[in-house]
Write a structure and sequence with these properties.
Layout lengths: L7 E5 L2 E8 L6 E5 L10 H7 L4 E5 L17 H14 L8 E5 L1 H11 L7 E5 L10 H8 L1 H4 L4 H13 L8 H8 L7 H11 L10 H4 L6 E6 L8 H9 L4 E5 L6 H4 L1 H12 L1
Length: 277
């Protein structure tokens, strides 16, 4: 449950990125993107299952998980989309279009890379993506209004806040060991300021530059999957987004909150397997 190692490094324009690949070299490529305040760890079960058919690429966004966290680092969503475009080239995934599966902020990153930077995908699955106005939990909104204040919390209080915040992404609740793995990267000397940095740089208007007209330009078969009990990004946004993207399929996962990968991994893997067949 806790073993997850990103054993490769890429020096991006926004710092060192840790990544790895699962499955056979040369198999059809599939890339998994995480969101905030998570890491690629949330994809571990789905990644291992899909690696039976695909060469699966997983990575931690700059400023998250095992990747570099540094003062003054640009971890804005537009920069993350640039880094993702860089990585596709680094991986050689420009000549053979990958399937991309993206969660939360990762959904915006994948869409921006496609619409702004011309990244080409074979298929695109968006899982509870942070895209349309109305996203964001009350806690995220409060932290975004006072990042300098919360950044001064003593380490123990900071850990308690992050623990409670991340746990609210699950509807049925997370296993304590899983929760600890997601909390720990934010509780180091570099991690605590990085937690508030990424919130400060990505306010509630961070995704507003991609409009309904832009989403209508998505030219790849798309699946929109959403936890029916998502308390962070309401499921009503799923219907709105699916209606904007031409030909998009919509699937709601009952019993799952925002972290569909943790709440309903078997159901989500089945959806992705069918979609990618």
């Amino acid at each position: 449950m806790t073993q997850w190692l990103l054993d490769r490094t890429y020096r991006s324009t926004s710092g060192e990125v840790r990544w790895t690949t699962l499955g056979e070299d040369g198999a059809p490529p599939l890339v998994l993107l995480h969101g905030t305040p998570f890491s690629s760890y949330v994809w571990r079960g789905v990644a291992r299952a899909l690696s039976e058919r695909f060469q699966v690429y997983v990575w931690d966004l700059p400023g998250y998980g095992a990747s570099e966290k540094a003062a003054g680092q640009d971890v804005s969503l537009p920069r993350q989309a640039e880094v993702f475009t860089e990585l596709l080239t680094h991986w050689g995934r420009t000549d053979r279009e990958p399937i991309v599966v993206a969660h939360d902020f990762g959904g915006y990153v994948a869409l921006r890379a496609h619409l702004v930077h011309g990244a080409r995908y074979r298929r695109l699955a968006l899982v509870g993506p942070t895209t349309l106005p109305g996203w964001g939990s009350p806690t995220y909104r409060l932290l975004g209004e006072h990042p300098d204040v919360f950044a001064q919390l003593p380490p123990a209080l900071h850990r308690a806040l992050v623990t409670e915040y991340i746990s609210s992404a699950s509807s049925p609740g997370m296993h304590p060991a899983v929760l600890e793995q997601l909390v720990e990267p934010w509780c180091t000397e570099q991690g605590q300021p990085a937690f508030y940095r990424q919130i400060e740089q990505n306010g509630l208007d961070a995704t507003a530059d991609l409009t309904q007209e832009e989403y209508r330009k998505v030219s790849v078969p798309t699946l929109v999957a959403w936890g029916a009990q998502d308390a962070w990004n309401p499921a009503t946004l799923a219907h709105d987004l699916a209606a904007m993207i031409p030909g998009a399929r919509l699937r709601l996962v009952d019993g799952a909150g925002h972290l569909v990968q943790e709440d309903a991994p078997a159901e989500l893997t089945a959806l992705l397997t069918a979609f990618t067949a």
